Amino acid sequence: MAKLGLLLLPIIFFTLSSCCPVDQKNALLQLKTALIRSTVNTSSNVFIFGMDSWEPGSDCCDWERVMCSSSPDSRAVIALFLDTLVSVDLTNPIVVPISVLMPLFGIRTLILLDISSNMIQGEIPGNLLANLSKLVHLDMMGNKFSGSIPPQVFHLRYLKYLDMSNNVLSGNLSHEVGSFRNLMTLRLDQNLLGGSIPEEIGSLKELQDLSLGSNSFNGGIPGSVSSLKELKILDLRDNLLSMEIPSTIGKLTNLTTLVLLGNRLSGGIPSSIQRLEKLETLNLERNILDGEIPLWLFNMKGLKNLLLGRNNLTWNGNAKRLAPKFQLSKLSLSSCRLAGEIPSWLSTQKGLDLLDLSENQLEGTFPLWLAEMELGGIILSDNKLNGSLPPRLFDSLNLSALALSRNNFSGELPENIGEATEIMIIMLASNQFSGEIPKSISKIYRLLLLDLSKNRFSGSSFPVFGDALLAYVDFSSNEFSGEVPTTFCQETRYLALGNNKFSGSLPRNLTKLSMLEHLQLNDNNITGEFPSFLSQISTLQVLILRNNSLRGSIPDNIFNLSSLQILDVSNNNLTGEVPKNMGKLLGMIETPNTFFSSGELFSFRVEYDDLIVNWKSSKRGLSHNSLSIYSLLDLSRNRLSGEIPTSLGELKGLKLLNMSYNSLTGKIPSSFGDLENVESLDLSHNRLSGTIPPTFSRLKDLSTLDLSNNLLEGKIPLGGQMDSMADPSSYANNSGLCGMQIRIPCSDDKPPPGAVKEQEDDADGKWFLWEGAGIGYSVGFLLTVGILYLSGYVSPVVPRKFSRTQRRRRV
């Protein structure tokens, strides 16, 4: 037995030594336990992937996501692939605390650490990260790391790959970045980094990929970049970089991708770029570059993506007979002052997938040769093109995006439009198209966005979009008639049908649109009572019903619309009292930070026109990007009666409140002084009596006030913004107002009382009669969409966790 034990000893020793070290195994088990504990008390459905094999009784070298050394002497853990560990419902996301990672920092043998796409929150613990001094590959992208990049990171001298993109890192990029002498990939894009790009970046002689986009870097592109002879990718998009593109950039002879879009770069396109013989992508869009587009660009054989739009560049008028040496995949010459017909040399680009010639002066018809090229995306918005669309265009199985808004196209849409079954985006707004919408369009099951607004379409029969994924529909400003259509799919989130000839009552079937966020039905002939069933669409954020013939009272259950931010029912025949429950509209109490955006549906950028409102007696545009902070309530030009509920003072998120041209009585609630964000308040043309509440002096953002044509009396409050509300027309035709604002002295000339105490002031001075011209506020969503295409434009963005393939850059 003793001899047998001696014989087995080497086997036992080899078995023990071939297992991962106990301390490293325990560290990984601690990580798993901490991760589970951090998610167990959340309300989300949380799934942890790739850790099922992590059990105490097994060798950690056999676990998923773990790689150990192959050395027979030591099976130490050398690589951890911990990306996308947690999957959650993005409507109720979680964050993973940085403390979960603490056990990892004791595994000093790590060469590769990937903790990307895990929603980890907190500052990076530099002192602990310094323990991992052997790291060659560190991937931390797609988390919520905050604070500055710790200096210890720059001391990881073996690093070849560093990705900290898509976090919330801030501060300046340290000059110590020059310490990374072995670094080949540096990705810090999509953070909050600022300051200038340090000159020391030129010390990274091995660097092949430098991505600093979507930050706030300023100053010029450092000249030292020209020292990066191995550089293949330079991506500095969406920063605050200024000055000219350095001519020394032509020294980067290995460069394949140069992306500088979205900065403040000026001057011309440097001629040294033509020396970059390996260049495949040149993206200079959205800068302030000027001069002519150089013709030498068309001699660069390797170019595949040429994106120069939205600068001050000018197309060379002598370039009509070009014979380019490249074969492009993407071309953007948006806003480059192209004139005449669509350039015929484009027909030589057999592999062209995206063409963006928007915002130019192009004329003529849609050429048949362009329809036959079967492109994926055609963007010709904002030109002077005319004629009808060739049916051949819709025989394509490649077409995914068609944007022709704001031209002079006319005629009916081709009947075969439904044959383009891969199309996802159709934007034909502001043309002269007519006739009915072809029924075949309902066969495009991938259709997500359909904008036919501001044309001459007519008819009362609509395609049934039941099988489509149509999220965005704009049929406004046409000549449609009949009942309001309900043939849209359940996924519809934006529905604009305003300014048509729809009639009858609102159909109850609208409630099947359970994801609807924006409903616009203004300027039609809709009758019947205010539909109480709309309160079942709890997702509504915008409801615009103005300029119709709705009657009856505003239903009490309207407070169920807890997300409602904008409600406009002006110029109808509504009667009865204003429901007290309106003070419970949560979306107007605390304005939510979410608002529908096409950017949530597509991976390209969508630009919106402003939302036009009647503000300060004139039209004003509200930026669509700022709608998440705007909340509007317009009940004007109805026949509402009774007293104003004091509960409306709870709507602290309101920017505009208009109750003018009704028959409201009683006093103005002192609670209106709590409308801390209100900028425009119109209560004119009612029968309101009593005094103006002294609490109005608390309205710090007030810029427009109209209380004319009521029965108000007493002193106009002073203090705060009320001191500047000095337009006499705002107080005209009342019983007996006095005060500094209208230059009528009050009998009590003592200093005004404090804003927090309400009191009545005696004032019996009468003043001149003035016929007020208060105008009811109106809201119209004049949405016109122009596309800035980025790669991946044909793929819908499905809410999901980050993936390793999803996160690569767009050009």
From TrEMBL:
One Gene Ontology CC term in the entry: plasma membrane
Record localization: Cell membrane
Pfam families per record: LRR_1 (PF00560), LRR_14 (PF23598), LRR_8 (PF13855), LRRNT_2 (PF08263)
UniProt xrefs under SMART domains: LRR_TYP
Endpoints of the signal sequence: 1-19
Domain (Disease resistance R13L4/SHOC-2-like LRR) ranges: 98-235
Domain of life of the organism encoding this protein: Eukaryota
Main location, first listed in the record: membrane
Membrane topology: Single-pass type I membrane protein
Keyword Electron transport (UniProt): no
Residues annotated as transmembrane: 775-798
GO biological process, one term: post-embryonic development
Listed name of the protein: Leucine-rich repeat domain containing protein
Domain Leucine-rich repeat-containing N-terminal plant-type: 23-69
Protein family membership: Belongs to the RLP family.
Keyword annotations of the record: Cell membrane, Glycoprotein, Leucine-rich repeat, Membrane, Receptor, Repeat, Signal, Transmembrane, Transmembrane helix
